[in-house]
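Hi C.,

You asked whether I'd gotten around to modeling the 238-residue construct. I have! Everything is below, sequence then structure, no commentary in between.
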Amino acid sequence: EPPHRGRCARASKQEAMDGAPSSLEVTSYDRWFDSTWGAYAFGVERRALGRVLGDLSGTRVLDAGCGTGRFTRALEEAGARVIGLDVDPAMARFCAGRTRGQVVVGDVRRLPFWAGCFDVSVAVTLLEFVDDPQRAVAELMRATRPRGRVVLALLNPASLWGMASARRRRRGPWASSHMLAASRVAAWCRPYGTVRRHGALFAPRAFPGIGRLGPALERLGRRFPRRGAFQLRVVEKR
């Protein structure tokens, strides 16, 4: 079996679970996905990822910044063999309890994987919380095989959601985030291959009837992808 199809991680699932505890309230964070807005946003984002990723059956996928494993599990359900990675041991431990594959504690700026190890690498709203996001992009590209795919999901402060949440993003975990212009991230990606743009999540927040009206809003919003709160940059590597 070629090296990039073999065992990628230099750490095991058990090593991830043995990490030092984090001060982050992981369970509280995970419960957000069960709120009205959290469930709606996650559903929209999951479907958007599914559209750009296509058939994942049998592929090896890296979920960088896996958090509590919501997207990791979704990627597994789509047929991928997924390795999750998170810098926070408590997040990695939670993810390991939700998913079937390996979960590794590690830094996206220094990925503990061989070059060309993955068919697809995904990073959902991770770059906003990394000190050197350009280096993180370079590492994700290194870990992805030639003619593989890298998908970077960014939050858009110029979207309806971004404007509605501006004050809230000044406190809590958001206080340490740095919103990135999607065009800037695309410029970092172009040396590695062809970059495509997709946008999703056009509602500003939860509102009465969002479950019924939201899908129509999403269909309308696809005509204006730059206004989506969930910005995807899809890189087809050379």
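If it helps when you're writing up: Confidence is low (pLDDT under 50) at residues 1-6, 11-21.

Thanks,
B.
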